[in-house]
From TrEMBL:
It comes from the Eukaryota. PROSITE patterns: GOLD. It comes from Oreochromis aureus (Israeli tilapia). This is GOLD domain-containing protein. It is a single-pass type I membrane protein. Residues 47-129 form the GOLD domain. GO terms for cellular component: endoplasmic reticulum membrane; endoplasmic reticulum-Golgi intermediate compartment membrane; Golgi apparatus. It is found in: Endoplasmic reticulum membrane; Endoplasmic reticulum-Golgi intermediate compartment membrane; Golgi apparatus, cis-Golgi network membrane; Membrane. Belongs to the EMP24/GP25L family. Residues 1-25 form the signal peptide. It holds the Pfam family EMP24_GP25L. Keywords: Endoplasmic reticulum, Membrane, Signal, Transmembrane, Transmembrane helix.
Length: 232
């Protein structure tokens, strides 16, 4: 019964963490960058795969983090659209991988938990796509719209460079905030798990101490009773 309740408590904690990290869900970046962040439960003894479509000469960055689960480790495989294995991680808690440049097609991201037969894992991963073709096209369209003579004196290249710099900093801030939320969720899980262990063993130690105290008192009382009977 106690083990069943412990498993139910662990599952409830994982579900709670999944709810708290849903804000990491699917998001769209500004401008040409395409960001996707996702948190999911990876069952014990199973493999989950996701697909990311890219175009020629794009840049793709994949970052993953195990938030909860026994061992805090998973296997990770990144396959190209042609089936070539680009990345292969075994039993790692986190990782960052970059593909530059990409090719046309769907890249496959697989998370493996076959080595764990009892514990499910909660995994957060984020994919950032930087489309250079779309970026250049958007800049040319923006320049074409500037036809007013009052804008001639502005240095368009400087303005564009500053806007690109601000955009990159915003994207980087978004990635850092997403990873900090993932770290916070993992730390919360570890604290709750350690709190349960500390509370359990504290109760066990207290029960043992009370039992020893009762046994000692009973033994002393029996000793005095036997001494009185011998004297009489």
């Amino acid at each position: 019964m106690h083990c069943h309740q412990s498993m139910m408590t662990a599952s409830a904690q994982l579900c709670l963490l999944a709810y708290l990290t849903l804000t990491l869900g699917l998001t769209l970046g500004l401008g040409p960058n395409k960001n996707m962040g996702f948190t999911f439960l990876l069952p014990a003894g199973s493999t989950e795969c996701f697909y990311q479509k890219t175009a020629m000469n794009d840049s793709m960055e994949v970052e993953y983090q195990v938030i909860a689960g026994s061992g805090l480790d998973v296997g990770f495989i990144l396959l190209s659209p042609t089936g070539h294995r680009l990345v292969s991680d075994f039993r790692r808690s986190d990782g960052i991988h970059t593909v530059d440049p990409t090719v046309d097609g769907d890249y496959r991201l697989c998370f493996d938990n076959n080595f764990s037969k009892m514990s499910e894992k909660m995994v957060f991963f984020e994919v950032v796509i930087n489309s250079l073709n779309s970026k250049n096209g958007g800049q040319d369209d923006w320049l074409d719209t500037v036809t007013s003579d009052s804008m001639v004196d502005y240095k368009m290249e400087d303005i564009r460079a500053r806007m690109d710099s601000v955009h990159r900093h915003l994207e980087k801030s978004h990635q850092v905030q997403a990873m900090l939320r993932a770290f916070e969720a993992r730390d919360r899980y570890l604290l709750e798990d350690n709190l349960w262990r500390v509370s359990f063993w504290s109760c066990v130690n207290l029960s043992v101490m009370l039992t020893v105290a009762v046994v000692q008192i009973y033994t002393l009382r029996r000793l005095f009773v036997n001494t009185k009977q011998v004297r009489t």
